[in-house]
């Protein structure tokens, strides 16, 4: 049950009240403020609506289910004061839907949004239509329930704390403990050690890495991680901001490292046509010793029908350091799912109570009920969780700094080009210099 101490005396500042366009007094979807009370009552920047309306994607049934469960248990008091109402939209229609609602001054209290929309220079960011959760939750006495790794990732992706980390994934190298033990291998701490281990694995008759080259990103992620370890955690921010170019030596070194791995055969035969399910099967049937992937792979690892090597034989390690590089092995790549933002106009005491209750209880409830890893602290006991899942959740709680994935800050066209051309890079049809030059030209053209 909810054991929070009083958090009613709060002052939230810095949340401007603006709209995208000059608006008529129109409201829907729970955006209509309650009849009683004035804006700012209870020292909040907004007025509580009549319902706590949450707009989420049709494809994300887990979020709806978990919030509903909270409303019936840990957040029952908050739900009685301000009833939870769900609204849905297709993931593909998010930007159009949210833009329309914003133009009608009808954004609900809690809503999904497109990544670019909620950045400081995005449509909603410029119009001050997204609340800063750090400010809200700090005043509510609940900010410490957001894990440092999650806040680091949200700020990295969006440029401000404008999303709650309902889903949270790390990326790293999954490995077969039995194969490593058989060959007397330890977790590589440097990239050179990773190459040496891969050569030993290959000599023993295993594929070192199971990577779904048909999708592009499982390969560009490896290249990107080399760049982050080599150039530093701000490597792709510097590209976005024009302070560096992909044709610089440190970036080309990443493309060279990936090409060298492919030419050495470390990805196995036919890796560029390998589909994700087939790559996962290679790893979980013991044919491949490693797989660079995200913690979303836990659903496969925990499925006994898929995992022939056994969950207790699966380890998870960070991408190793690059000798002389500016990054370090403790900076994990991470993502926090789709943006789930808040409308500052509707943050009164009751809405703030809802967000505080979510922050305090979602981590434990989602992990216990659905095995979902989040960026919230797990308050309370969790039982019968697979060992590997528990290990990853503990790892998430330990991390203080994260980096983005290689394509995170690229425009859509450049993102696609990175994946398309990586086939040419790894087959030797394109040099590292050509690969990076073409990608940089695309980024420059996008402005």
Quickly list its features.
447 residues; alpha/beta; four-stranded mixed sheet; 10 strands; disordered N terminus
Order of helical and strand elements: EHHEHEHHHEHHEHHHHEHEEEHHEHH
Overall structural class, as computed from helix and strand content, comes to: alpha/beta
Runs in which pLDDT lies below 50 for 5 or more consecutive residues are 1-42
Strand content: 5-15%
Per DSSP, the total helix count is: 17
Question: What Rg is obtained from the alpha carbons, in whole angstroms?
Answer: 23 Å
- The best one-word shape is globular
Q: Percent range for helical residues?
A: 40-55%
**Terminal-residue CA separation:** 51 Å
Give the overall average pLDDT. Answer: 90
The largest sheet is: 6 strands, mixed
For the secondary structure, the number of strands is 10
Textual characterization of the structure:
The protein has 447 residues and is of the alpha/beta class. It has 17 helices and ten strands. Strands 4, 5, 6, 7, 8 and 10 form a six-stranded mixed sheet that branches. It is globular, with a radius of gyration of 23 Å. Residues 1-42 have low confidence and may be disordered.
Sum this structure up briefly.
With 447 residues, the protein is α/β, with parallel strands linked by helices. It is 40% helix and 11% strand.
Set down the secondary structure blueprint.
Blueprint: E1 52-57, H1 61-71, H2 76-81, E2 84-89, H3 94-103, E3 110-113, H4 123-126, H5 133-139, H6 148-158, E4 169-176, H7 177-182, H8 191-203, E5 207-209, H9 217-231, H10 235-240, H11 249-263, H12 276-284, E6 288-294, H13 298-301, E7 314-317, E8 332-335, E9 339-342, H14 349-370, H15 387-398, E10 402-403, H16 412-426, H17 432-446
Parallel strand pairs: 1-2, 1-3, 5-6, 8-10
Antiparallel strand pairs: 3-9, 4-6, 4-7, 4-8
Helix pairs in contact: 1-14, 9-11, 11-17, 16-17
């Amino acid at each position: 049950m909810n054991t929070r101490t009083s958090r009613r005396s709060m002052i939230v500042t810095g949340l401007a009240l603006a709209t995208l366009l000059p608006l008529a007094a129109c409201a829907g979807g729970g955006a209509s403020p309650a009849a009683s009370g004035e804006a700012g009552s209870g020292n909040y920047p907004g007025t509580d609506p009549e319902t706590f309306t949450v707009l989420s994607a049709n494809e994300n049934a887990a979020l709806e289910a978990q919030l509903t469960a909270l409303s019936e248990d840990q957040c029952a008091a908050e739900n009685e004061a301000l009833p939870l109402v769900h609204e849905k939209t297709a993931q593909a229609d998010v930007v159009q839907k949210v833009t329309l609602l914003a133009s009608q001054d009808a954004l609900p209290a809690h809503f999904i949004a497109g990544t670019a929309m909620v950045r400081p220079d995005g449509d909603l960011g410029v119009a001050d239509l997204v609340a800063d959760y750090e400010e809200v939750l700090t005043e509510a006495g609940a900010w410490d329930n957001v894990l440092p790794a999650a806040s680091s990732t949200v700020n990295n992706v969006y440029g401000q704390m404008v999303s709650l980390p309902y889903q949270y994934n790390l990326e790293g190298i999954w490995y077969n403990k039995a194969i490593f033990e058989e060959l007397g291998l330890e977790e590589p701490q440097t990239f050179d050690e990773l190459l040496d281990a891969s050569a030993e694995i290959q000599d023993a008759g295993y594929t070192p890495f199971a990577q779904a080259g048909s999708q592009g990103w499982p390969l560009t992620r490896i290249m990107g991680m080399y760049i982050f370890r080599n150039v530093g955690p701000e490597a792709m921010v510097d590209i976005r901001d024009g302070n560096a170019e992909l044709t610089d030596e440190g970036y080309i070194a990443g493309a060279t490292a990936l090409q060298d791995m492919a030419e050495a055969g470390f990805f196995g035969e036919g890796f560029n046509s390998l589909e994700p399910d087939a790559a996962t099967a290679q790893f979980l049937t013991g044919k491949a010793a490693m797989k660079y992937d995200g913690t979303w792979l836990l659903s496969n690892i925990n499925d006994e029908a898929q995992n022939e090597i056994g969950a207790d034989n699966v380890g998870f390690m960070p991408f190793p350091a690059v000798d002389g590089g500016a990054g370090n092995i403790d900076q994990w790549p991470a993502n926090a799912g789709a943006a789930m933002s808040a409308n500052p106009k509707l943050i009164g005491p009751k809405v703030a109570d809802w967000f505080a209750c979510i922050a305090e209880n979602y981590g434990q409830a989602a992990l216990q009920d659905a095995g979902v890893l989040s960026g919230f602290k797990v308050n309370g006991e969790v039982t019968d969780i697979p060992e590997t899942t528990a290990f990853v959740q503990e790892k998430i709680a330990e991390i203080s700094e994260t980096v983005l994935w290689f394509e995170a800050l690229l425009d859509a066209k450049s993102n696609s080009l990175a994946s398309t051309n990586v086939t040419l890079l790894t087959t030797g049809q394109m040099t590292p210099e050509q690969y990076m030059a073409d990608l940089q030209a695309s980024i420059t053209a996008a402005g």
